[in-house]
Amino acid sequence: MIKKMKQIYQREQFNPTIFGVFINPFYFVRKGLYNHLSELAKYVNGKVLDIGCGQKPYQGLFKCDEYIGLEIDTPENRKIKKADLFYDGKHIPLNDSSIDWVIASEVFEHVFNPDEFLSEIQRVLKPDGGLLISIPFIWDEHEQPYDFARYSSFGLKYLLTKHGFDIVEHRKINNGVEVIFQLVICYLYKILPFKKNYLRIFTISLLTAPINLVDLFLSFILPKNNDLYLNNIILARKIKNV
After folding, report:
1. What is the rounded CA–CA span in Å between residue 93 and residue 85?
2. Which of 6, 36, 77, 169 could join 81 via S-S bond, C-beta 3.0 to 4.6 A?
3. Considering the chain, what percentage of its residues have pLDDT values greater than 90?
4. Does residue 99 contact residue 130 with C-beta atoms inside 8 Å?
């Protein structure tokens, strides 16, 4: 029973169904990311590089010729991540102008030197190559101690323009009352005392369900606020070498 619950829980993490309302503490942020990445996936083609690919949860969204997962080279990542390539965090092991699209979902906040990171993306992208990136704006510290920054829409526009990118589309997602409810659930998730995963999953599910249901109702009737939101998603094109 416990094993079955854990399998369902894992399946619901990145593309939650309505069932995720009852068991996924990150339902709104994950659902928002998946929906918007799905809508923008139609622009992505050719040879694709997924930086910080993890378990490649979004690979199925993209109709491309080749999908390459890239991760930081650590013993843990080599053991558990579905990466095709590993790198030192500075130099991407690919030739200049060899990639059509780069995807980086929930990675940029873990990059200590954004200029160096964007320069490497610029280098491996072909002329007129594309970048699809998602970055949290309001979120708790996570994957400590490798959580270095939060970026406003203006900061992201400045950095991308500086490195030769033109922003085609910029979306601020989860920009309603779900911001508040999602942070409440994050708070509860972090303070749970249970060390065993199955107890944590069971308890957070009991707490998550009523909060998510109220949030789901209120998000339909209350107005949005584009200044307060959980995530940025940006679709950009390389327009010049820098």
Report:
1. 8
2. 77
3. 79
4. no
Tell me how far apart the alpha carbons of residues 210 and 142 are, in angstroms, rounded to a whole number.
25
Three-state DSSP class for residue 236? strand
> Is the per-residue pLDDT at 2 higher than 60?
no
Nearest in space to 16 (alpha carbons), one of 29, 31, 33: 31
Q: Are the C-beta atoms of residues 169 and 161 closer than 8 Å to each other?
A: no
Mean model confidence pLDDT for the chain: 92
Please give the domain boundaries of the chain with CATH numbers for all domains: 1-32+177-223 (no CATH), 44-175+225-242 (3.40.50.150)
**Cα separations (Å) of 218 from 96, 101, 221?**
49, 37, 5
Please name the residue ranges forming H helices in 18-169: 20-23, 27-40, 75-80, 114-124, 153-162
Q: In angstroms, rounded to a whole number, what is the distance separating the alpha carbons of residues 200 and 215? A: 22
Distance between CA atoms of residues 130 and 139, nearest Å: 26
